[in-house]
Write a structure and sequence with these properties.
With 213 residues, this protein is an all-alpha fold. Helix content is 44%, strand content 0%. The protein has eight helices and no strands. The protein has helices at 2-8, 36-42, 63-73, 83-94, 118-122, 129-140, 147-171, 189-203. Helix 1 (2-8) crosses helix 8 (189-203) and helix 4 runs parallel beside helix 8. The longest helix has 25 residues, at 147-171. It is flat, with a radius of gyration of 19 Å. It starts with a helix and ends in a 10-residue tail after the last helix.
Length: 213
């Protein structure tokens, strides 16, 4: 979501507002997000994305907070006419626990749930107490894969898409227009977060949650 926001941000409000953003990949498949330095100094949740800067008192660890900061310099992402609905729908979208929708539905799911190797790291006798505490905290996030959080996330996703479809019907005069509020408005922060959300659902085999239209 954050990377797509950066890609769609357009021109800054002024030359002084330009944000020079350098991307650094974190390889989740190699558990780089569970490394001691990352958990203790960058993101205690062991998640991505994270925005760090000497100008920030602490790293920003939520996509929505990073987007809010980018929108301050790139107003195209948050046009005044649509700002209230964009902010409301972004809040609704980010109220959904993404981990809860990161695995296939029960009928298509293999036995067990993917293990991110936290237990293996916790079993090491040579790790620091601070790193052990951080790993234990990250482990609690796996409760998002329990039945009730998954059901709640499914309901939230359904409601979000229903609200989104209403905006499509109100603003897209051309069904081929790629953006939620039509070509005249162009890409907004809501587009930048919705497209990756849909892509994640498709990758996770949760096409049952994505409206056909």
């Amino acid at each position: 979501m954050t990377r797509y926001t950066i890609a769609l941000r357009g021109d800054p409000s002024s030359a002084a507002a330009t944000m020079a953003i350098e991307e650094k990949m974190v390889d989740l498949h190699r558990d780089e997000n569970l490394a001691e330095q990352y958990l203790l100094a960058v993101n205690p949740k062991g998640q991505v994305p994270t925005l760090t800067s000497p100008a920030l008192p602490i790293p920003l660890t939520e996509s929505l907070d990073i987007t809010d900061l980018i929108c301050q310099s790139y107003p195209k992402l948050l046009p005044p006419t649509h700002r209230p609905i964009i902010e409301r729908l972004l809040a609704d979208l980010h109220a959904i626990q993404p981990l809860s929708l990161s695995i296939p539905p029960p009928e298509d799911r293999a036995a067990g749930i993917p293990n991110p190797s936290i237990e293996k790291s916790l079993a090491r006798p040579d790790i620091s107490d601070a790193w052990r505490d951080a790993l234990s905290h990250a482990q609690t996030l796996l409760h998002a894969l329990d039945e009730e959080p998954v059901r709640r996330a499914e309901e939230q996703a359904t409601c979000f898409f229903e609200s989104l479809r209403r905006q499509y019907s109100l603003h897209r005069k051309d069904a081929r227009a790629p953006w939620i509020f039509g070509d005249a408005v162009g890409a907004t922060a809501l587009d930048a977060h919705t497209v990756p959300f849909v892509a994640r659902l498709i990758d996770a085999g949760r096409t049952d949650l994505v409206p056909e239209d």
